Amino acid sequence: MTIKRPRTRRKLGRRTVSELVVVRLILYRRILRDLAFSGTRYVFSHQLAILADVTPEQLRRDLMNVRYEGSPTRGYEVVALEERIGAFLDPPTTQSVALVGVGNLGRALFAYFLGRRPLLQIVAAFDIDPAKVDRMINGCPSYHISEARTVMRDKGINVAMIAVPAAAAQSVADILVEAGVRSLLNFADVRLRLPPDVYVEHIDIGVTLEKVAFFARRPVAAAKDVGPA
Amino acid sequence: MTIKRPRTRRKLGRRTVSELVVVRLILYRRILRDLAFSGTRYVFSHQLAILADVTPEQLRRDLMNVRYEGSPTRGYEVVALEERIGAFLDPPTTQSVALVGVGNLGRALFAYFLGRRPLLQIVAAFDIDPAKVDRMINGCPSYHISEARTVMRDKGINVAMIAVPAAAAQSVADILVEAGVRSLLNFADVRLRLPPDVYVEHIDIGVTLEKVAFFARRPVAAAKDVGPA
DNA sequence: GCGGCGCTGTGAAACGCATAACAGCGTTCT
DNA sequence: AGAACGCTGTTATGCGTTTCACAGCGCCGC
User: B9-87: which CATH architecture?
Assistant: First the structure.
């Protein structure tokens, strides 16, 4: 869920790739992993497109960005394509992530990380509650937010997740950015205002939920575009 | 976070409104609430635009959809505009929501609903774990998923949130749709395949997180569009 | 009272993205 | 062996959204 803004883009080789393409590539790779796991060797664009809920044309167009060529007769080789997308998406080295806010949501995020995502690791948690600080949570040390700057620098963290109440989110974000974070994932229901060179992604459950509720009330055959006039 | 597809639209009066507009309207209203709470009476489009992280032109254009006119000299009257947007967005009556999956994330969602959102209420929770079933959770009864159909019908639920492991999500979704749900909010990291008249919104934390990590590695001044060639 | 300023609302242009259409080619079937 | 099929990669078209630009107008200051 997101608001359309001047898209952040990133160069690869001499090309520039939009956020939308990146998101879909991530999705394709996940599907390819599942396919590889289930023993599939080759896949056609229309098959993969169905699994990703995308048109085949769009899939092929997206794949142009990663410079991988499929065979007209066999389609794409699952493992090879997965690796090629990985080469495009993955960091050269493991990225360290910080989590701020160890409430219900924070714990859910910890649970989410277990096992998965070897290339992204939560190496530090922060909170303001003394009861939650200076402990180990899922093998990860927790600190008081006031130590953020030191810890972030020491551990070379440049990605952070914010899972604190809305009222605290902006000041937390300011602290993080000041401590060198380049990229944020914000779960608080507030639009953060930050310098333009910081990448922010909002997961705004409140807005998303209202949106879903709104569209639950639309006319039955809306998908067919039946509007008069 | 979402993939661009043929946009779901909804008529209002004789106009049709896109998802993007709806999302922004929801956001504007939230900001207006905060402004009203802090005692602000009037607001100009450029002020509101900054708070919403949008251009003033876009804000004004969005507001055209709700048929509210501001004054050239005072701007928009905060409370009146908030109410006007509410009249556009809100359901005539309270909507009942179901939550499937009472794990970490499910509980976080319950916590989220506390106090807020009088127009959306979780009236039933479902799980497959016997230990979590037939209890009260935050004043809401929990049932085994096998009872979904009956309960959903009885309570007139047409919106549901899915917070179960990825492997179970599709079958849960099928059950829900079969039980009459029109609109889904899915937190599982799987793309659900459902009939086109069902509205689905994905909150895919895995994808979003990878995206954030990816853009943390972009060149420093990317925002200025410094690409050569 | 009149001129000028700054805001709103909206038509028109520009942009980005998705969709459609097509050329190339390896495989397979006759 | 030759032809036809179906898939890929890519170019061209179209659409939706955002951005630009300006007309209209109430208020404020002179």
Answer: Orthogonal Bundle (1.10)
| pLDDT for res A114 | 82
β-sheet bridge partners, residue A75: A71
Nearest CA in chain A to B51: A191
Judge whether B9-87 and B95-210 match in fold: no
Residues by Cβ under 7 A, strand D? A 3-6, 44-46, 56-57, 60-61, 63-64, 68-73, 75-76; B 7, 18-21, 54-55, 57-58, 61, 71-74
Q: What is the DSSP letter of A53?
A: T
Question: What are the tens digits of pLDDT across the range A59-78?
Answer: 999 999 998 888 888 999 99
User: Hey, which residues 129-168 in chain B have their CB within 8 Å of chain A?
Assistant: 158-159, 161
Distance of CA B217 to the CA centre of its chain: 29
The answer for residues whose C-beta is within 8 angstroms of residue B123's C-beta and 6 or more apart is: B96, B97, B98, B140, B155, B157
| 3-state SS assignment for residue B156 | coil
Name the residue among A10, A216, A228 with its Cβ closest to that of B158: A216
Say if domain A9-85 classifies as CATH 1.10.10.10: yes
Of residues B3, B117, B159, nearest to A23 (C-beta): B3
Superfamily for domain range B95-210: NAD(P)-binding Rossmann-like Domain (3.40.50.720)
pLDDT single digits (tens) B93-133: 899 999 999 998 999 999 888 877 889 999 999 999 999 99
Domain ranges of chain B: 9-87, 95-210
Please check whether residue B97 is in contact with residue B159, taking contact to mean a CB–CB distance below 8 angstroms. Answer: yes
C1' (D8) to CA (A25) span, angstroms: 18
Stretch A190-219: mean pLDDT, rounded? Answer: 92
Dist. CA B152–CA B147, nearest whole Å: 8
Residues A72-100, mean pLDDT to the nearest whole number = 94
- Mean of pLDDT values over A132-140: 93
